Request: fold
Amino acid sequence: MRQAGRFLPAYRELRRKHSIQDLCRIPELAVQASMTAVEALPGLDGAIIFSDILQIPQAMGIEVRFVASEGPAIGSPLTTEADVEALKSLEPERDLRGPIEGIRMLRREVEGKMPVIGFAGAPFTLASYLIEGGPSKDFLKTKRLMCSVPGFWAKLMAKLADAVADHLNAQIRAGAHIVQLFDSWVGALGVDDYGDYVQPYVRSILKRVQGAPVIHFGTGTAALLERMRDAGGDVIGLDWRVDLAEAWKRLGPGVGVQGNLDPAALLAPRPELERRVDAILDRAGGRPGHIFNLGHGVLPETPVENVIAVIERVHKPVQSPKSAGEKR
Reply:
């Protein structure tokens, strides 16, 4: 999850020279940012292209600024159906050259060593940014428009779903071995609202994505796991708020799981960190289909050596009371 970031000295050095926008927009810089993680964290099983989920709205004509200590800010939040109709159609190869060409270049860089991972934001998360104007704690504007102006919501979600599906397919054509759909804020919804206002659009995306496995991820989604599974995806990402074994049981056979170490655990003393890693591996029980990962992004305060320790712990056969003599 978010390999390249503020916890890596090489990435911070790169950011002193270039804006986030440039790192996302210029393929050579996107690859350079991606490689900061590959080079600093030996043992990684994949390389994630450096990008940002709000590149899709930008390519559709939305002004996006990144404000220090606040995050992304939308220049003119959407409020009417006319605003939605004014959004441009997306052509990924033309409008999103940074991640698309970046994936081609990154694949050449790591060919034979590890797979390349692409990603895109899901429609609800993108819509919430476009309506709220930035991050939100309660998503009241989004929920109000979702429930009270159905024409607005349906048009916006359909446009975003088309753009996301096209972007993910373009990444696969460019060489991504696997892609992930990020629905970072969908946990703000109840089960019925998810089913009525979000699931149909996610399902339409995941039916259209072809040529590579898809990880379907959200945060705060303990109540939504079955609905997310039904929407589609080869792997369901789990945040740290759910028990991995219980969540996997709920999801049933035929689907993998990703997760789900609390990112804050990376700040713990080494014995406690290793205990938590072991607990997740024990819950997975060595079953095929588990991708060990964090339950969300790496925190800026994280010591690099702790991330390396987790990678080594996951790959090293360890004896424990529950799995003595078994390789993980």
Observations:
- The beta strands are 47-48, 64-67, 71-74, 116-121, 178-183, 214-218, 235-237, 256-261, 290-294.
- The first strand starts at residue 47 and ends at 48.
